[in-house]
C-alpha cells in the first residue's frame, strides 16, 4: 500500500506546485488543466475555470504530492485545507534548515525549527497557500 497526500486549492494549484518544486526539488510529473479533460468531463466546467488545474503531481525522491483546484461544480464552498499537515521527514538537520525557511517564505511559522527531545530539528509552518507543514529530522533511535 502507498499513501499519498492530495491537496485541494482554490485556484492557485499551479502556483503552489511550482513553489513546492522550488522548495523541495523533484519533478512536476503532471499539471493538467481542466481544458485538457475529455469533453464529457469538462462540459460542466465554466470557461473561466478551464485554465485551473484538474490534476497535479510532484515527485520527490520516490514520494508523491498531488493536488487540484476546486471547481464551481463542488457542492460545498471552498473552506481551505484544515485539520491536516503535510509531514516531511529528512535525514539531516541541514536539509531541514534548507526546506523549512523555503516553505515558510510569505507564510507563517507555527513552531520554529529547533531541536526537540525526539528530533535534531522539528518545526511547523503554514505556507503562503494555507497548507500546514511539519518538518522533522528525527534522532537516531537506540535499538531496544
UniProtKB/TrEMBL annotation:
Pfam families from the entry?
A: Glyoxalase
Q: Which InterPro entries does UniProt cross-reference here?
A: Glyas_Bleomycin-R_OHBP_Dase, Glyas_Fos-R_dOase_dom, PhnB-like
Matches recorded under CDD domains = PhnB_like
**What region holds the Glyoxalase/fosfomycin resistance/dioxygenase domain?**
3-135
User: Which superkingdom does the taxonomy of this entry point to?
Assistant: Bacteria
The protein's name: VOC family protein
Query: Whose protein is this, by species?
Result: Halomonas heilongjiangensis
Amino acid at each position: 500500500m502507498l499513501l499519498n497526500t492530495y491537496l485541494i486549492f482554490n485556484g492557485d494549484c499551479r502556483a503552489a506546485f511550482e513553489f513546492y518544486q522550488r522548495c523541495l526539488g523533484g519533478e512536476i510529473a503532471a499539471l493538467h488543466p481542466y481544458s485538457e479533460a475529455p469533453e464529457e468531463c469538462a462540459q460542466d466546467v465554466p470557461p473561466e475555470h478551464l485554465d485551473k488545474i484538474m490534476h497535479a503531481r510532484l515527485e520527490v525522491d520516490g514520494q508523491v504530492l498531488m493536488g487540484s483546484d476546486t471547481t464551481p461544480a463542488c457542492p460545498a464552498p471552498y473552506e481551505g485545507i484544515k485539520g491536516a499537515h503535510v509531514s516531511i521527514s529528512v535525514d539531516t538537520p541541514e536539509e531541514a534548515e534548507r526546506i523549512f525557511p523555503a516553505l515558510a517564505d510569505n507564510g507563517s511559522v507555527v513552531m520554529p525549527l529547533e531541536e526537540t527531545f525526539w528530533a535534531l530539528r522539528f518545526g511547523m509552518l503554514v505556507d503562503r497557500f494555507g497548507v500546514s507543514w511539519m518538518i522533522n529530522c528525527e534522532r537516531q533511535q537506540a535499538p531496544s
